[in-house]
Amino acid sequence: MSDRPRVVLGVGGGIAAYKACEVLRRLTESGHEVRVLPTRAALNFVGAATFEALSGQPVHTDVFTDVPEVPHVRIGQRADLVMVVPATADLLAKAAHGLADDLLTNTLLTARCPVLMVPAMHTEMWEHPATVDNVALLRSRGTIVTEPASGRLTGKDTGKGRLADPAEIVDLARLLLSRADALPRDLEGLRVVVSAGGTREPLDPVRYLGNRSSGKQGYALARTAAQRGADVTLVAAHTVALPDPTGVRLVHAGTAEQLRDAVHEASADADVVVMAAAVADFRPASKADHKIKKTDRDPDPVTLVRNPDILAELVAKRRDGQTIVGFAAETGDSGADVLDHARAKLKRKGCDLLVVNAVGEGKAFEVEENSGWLLSATGDERPITLGSKSQMATEVWDAIHTLRDR
C-alpha cells in the first residue's frame, strides 16, 4: 500500500448517490487518494464536476477515454480498496455475474484488493430472490456486502434499504484498509448482545450521577459484529449522538437498573454477550422531586446505594455454550497497577474474556482511538495496540471467534 491509500469509489445510479459526496469528502480529508467511477445513471443524480472537485481526479464512465492508459484494467490493479456507494440492485447483479459494460464494472473484475458494496434500494428490491442470491454469491467470493439500514426511503416509503450513514461507511473502509485480510463473515448464525454508553442515575429532575463514556467502543463492537454476519442487539445507555449502527437492533436504557433489565431480556437466548457499557457502580438512594437549589438551606446529604453487578449476574445465570465478555476501565493506584486490578476483576467476575482499558486524560473515554489488553479466563493475556475503536472491536471479535471455535 502507498503512503496515500488508493481508493476507488464507485457510485451507482440511485437517489442515495448524493451521500457518496460525503463519503468522498471524508476519505480525501483523511489523506486517501480517491478515484470516483460513477455509472452513467449516477450522473443523473450528481454531476461529474462535483466528484472531480471533491476528489481532484478526472471522472469518466466509459472504457474508451485515455485508452493508452488502459484504465479499465489499471484502475482496479492499482487500488487498495474498491467500494461502491450506493450499490444498486443492478450493480449487485452485474458484479455477481461478471458483466462489464462500463468503467466501474470492468474495474470490479480487475480488482484484487478488498471490494466493499454498500447497498441502497427499495425494500422490495433488496428482498427479491434475485438480489438475495446475488448478495450470497458475492459474499461467497469474498466481496463485503453490508446490510442496508432501515428508515425513510424515496417518497413516502419506509423500510429496509436505506444507505448506511456515511461516517459508518468510511469507518468500515478504513478498517478494511488496516487489515491484511478481508473482513470475514465468521459470525453468521450467532445471536449477539452488546451494551454501550454510560448510565445516568438521577439526583433530581436536572442532575444525575454519570461517567464520561461516549458509547463509541460499544457501538463499534455492535457494528463490527453485524458486518461479520451476527444477529446483533445493542442495548445503549447515554451516548454522544452516535448514528444507529446499520443492521443492528437498538434498545435504549437510561439507568443501570433499566440497562440491567434490557440486557437480561436480550441475552436470554444469546450466544455472546459483550458488556461494554460503563455502568454506574452507585446511585442515589432517592431522587428529589424538584431541582435542588443553591439557596436551599442545609440540603439533605446524598446517600448512595450500590447498583446491581450486571456482569456477575450474567455469568451466574449463563446458559450452556454462552460466551460472556466484560470490559474494565482501570487506573493504577498505590496498591496495584492497571493489569493487577484487571486480573483480580476477571477472577472475581468469572467471565470468559475481559477487555481492559487504562483510563485517564485522553485515554479510552471521549476519544477516537483505543488500546488496552485482552485477558482470558484460561490465563492468556495480550496487548491491543493503539488504533481506531473499530480496530479494537475486530480484535475482540477475532478473540471471541477463536475461543468459540476451540
UniProtKB/TrEMBL annotation:
Cellular compartments per GO CC: phosphopantothenoylcysteine decarboxylase complex
Region (Phosphopantothenate--cysteine ligase): 192-406
GO biological process, one term: pantothenate catabolic process
Keywords: Decarboxylase, Flavoprotein, FMN, Ligase, Lyase, Magnesium, Metal-binding, Multifunctional enzyme
Pfam families in the cross-refs: DFP, Flavoprotein
Associated pathway: Cofactor biosynthesis; coenzyme A biosynthesis; CoA from (R)-pantothenate: step 2/5; Cofactor biosynthesis; coenzyme A biosynthesis; CoA from (R)-pantothenate: step 3/5
Cofactors, names only: FMN; Mg(2+)
DNA/pantothenate metabolism flavoprotein C-terminal domain: residues covered: 187-401
Keyword Amino-acid biosynthesis annotated: no
Residues engaged in binding CTP: D281, K291, P308, D309, I310, L311, F327, K345, K349
Documented EC number(s): 4.1.1.36, 6.3.2.5
GO MF term list: FMN binding; metal ion binding; phosphopantothenate--cysteine ligase activity; phosphopantothenoylcysteine decarboxylase activity
Family annotation (InterPro entries): CoaB-like_sf (IPR035929), CoaBC (IPR005252), DNA/pantothenate-metab_flavo_C (IPR007085), Flavin_trans-like (IPR036551), Flavoprotein (IPR003382)
Domain of life the protein comes from: Bacteria
Reactions catalysed according to its record: N-[(R)-4-phosphopantothenoyl]-L-cysteine + H(+) = (R)-4'-phosphopantetheine + CO2; (R)-4'-phosphopantothenate + L-cysteine + CTP = N-[(R)-4-phosphopantothenoyl]-L-cysteine + CMP + diphosphate + H(+)
Annotated region described as Phosphopantothenoylcysteine decarboxylase, given as residue ranges: 1-191
Record's cofactor remark: Binds 1 FMN per subunit.
Annotated ranges, domain Flavoprotein: 6-171
Similarity comment: In the N-terminal section; belongs to the HFCD (homo-oligomeric flavin containing Cys decarboxylase) superfamily.
Physiological role: Catalyzes two sequential steps in the biosynthesis of coenzyme A. In the first step cysteine is conjugated to 4'-phosphopantothenate to form 4-phosphopantothenoylcysteine. In the second step the latter compound is decarboxylated to form 4'-phosphopantotheine. Catalyzes two steps in the biosynthesis of coenzyme A. In the first step cysteine is conjugated to 4'-phosphopantothenate to form 4-phosphopantothenoylcysteine, in the latter compound is decarboxylated to form 4'-phosphopantotheine.
Name of the protein in its database record: Coenzyme A biosynthesis bifunctional protein CoaBC
Taxonomic source organism: Herbihabitans rhizosphaerae
Biological classification of the source: Bacteria, Bacillati, Actinomycetota, Actinomycetes, Pseudonocardiales
